User: Fold this.
Amino acid sequence: MSADRISVAELQELLAAHRPVTVLDVRSPSDVDWEIPGAIHMDAYAELQSGRLGPLADLSPAQGPIVTVCGVGRTAGIATELLRAKGVAALTLDGGMRSWSLAWNTAQIMISGCQVVQVRRVDPDVYVRLLSERGWRLVAVADTHIHADHLSRSRQLAHLEGAALLLPTQNRAEYPFRPVADGDRIVFGSTALVGMRTPGHTAESTTYLLDNTAAFTGDTLFLNSVGRPDLEGGTPQERASRARLLHMSVSRLLQLPEATQVFPGHVSEAIAFDGRMLRTTVGTIRDTVALVRLEEAAFVQAVLARIPPNPPNHSRIVEFNERGELPGDPSELEAGANRCATA
Ligand SMILES: [Fe+2]
Assistant:
């Protein structure tokens, strides 16, 4: 790390190794839509812009360095400079939250004799590294739907590793892929994933089932909410009909055995570096998420009333994903929180 800066990879390593570090987020509260796990927030933006520490002057001494964070690293740089002038060991996160979108971590678990590795955040290089560390060969990359809140790297990863590229049957993707229809089996090793069509979030959204003991639900069912049904635009009637499809899909998922583990495509909170799987069970969702127990009409009404703001840049992200391409700097388009869930 340079004298007063720290890279995303270096901070990720400190957090993963549980080394002492204080992440200090100095963005205005209105700009905070996602965060680094464990970050403390101090709204000092305006003061820092005028060269004053403001509330940061009262910062109590911390173990390890203080890593200052803002949107792209500029205001945090002012904080670092002022803190260092007071003798505080401070470093600026290079590139701020925009660059943090490339940070990642993993968790793993055995299910039905399969080693399931959850990779949080996507970049083909990360998968290539994890595969080579384990001596694994990639046979297939299966996407759950055409994404609107992040750029899919499925096509690039499949290409890099010479693996099959699987997508739910649809006519949006403009590049070759192996279509997955409801009930299709994707055989690997001595087992298989089974595609289960779960439309609603998007028309093609598909869940992948492993032996009815695990469901990889993409953006259809989250740990404590369901996917939003409106991102494909359309009239209020069309949104309502997608919400009805979503109700049908969620109901179908909840008919799985209650111990079935649910692995969603995203979570809305910062993911801690604690190696814990982001998962729940069908039974827990049934017991704790009131929304999923509603009858169709009430479900549709509730879901449509809880639509969060559109993901920034979502129509450009969809265009890239339909073409199977990546822009020069992906972090410019996709930094931020998951916006595919209902609030
Ligand atoms: Fe999505």
